[in-house]
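Section 5.1 Outputs to date
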Amino acid sequence: MKQNRTKAAIAAAFTRLLADYPIDKITIRMITDTVGCSRKTFYYYFTDVYDLTRFICAERIDDFLENHGDAETMREGFMTMLEFLRSDRQVILNMYHGYGKEALERFALQAIIDSTRKILSNTPEAIGVPEDDLDAVVRMYAYMFFGILVDWTCAEMPHDAHYPKTLDVALTSLPKILKSLEQ
């Protein structure tokens, strides 16, 4: 149990530091000084700050899916994700604008794919889609959501109505466009 507490304390210290510093300005020493542990203890749990970043992203995504992963529509799930991310706005931005961008994007994309698969698997629209094709449909929607998410993050996570409108247009227009391409 003490190991879990120490690992959690290191992650919490790193997250607190991310609220004030860009990820590329945070050192192992800053983290260990904040926790009150040695570098050896840090390296017992994490190989480097990248590894710690991946751990924090995985923990956040697990938390999101556990507490907010029951959306009934893709729009609801995506908008809930934006609000969840916005609640840690400065931490996310300090991670995203530093060398944590790749890990954050990889984990965000996987969370979007998992959420989209769950929602599409439970909708009447997906019933007519063969299981082999469902993955392609899931990925198409997930990549669209991911693109909107990256654009929103690069714009510093604004509170404006542009992104919900973009999402609404995409969700209503995409099926129409695809249907017209079939003809």
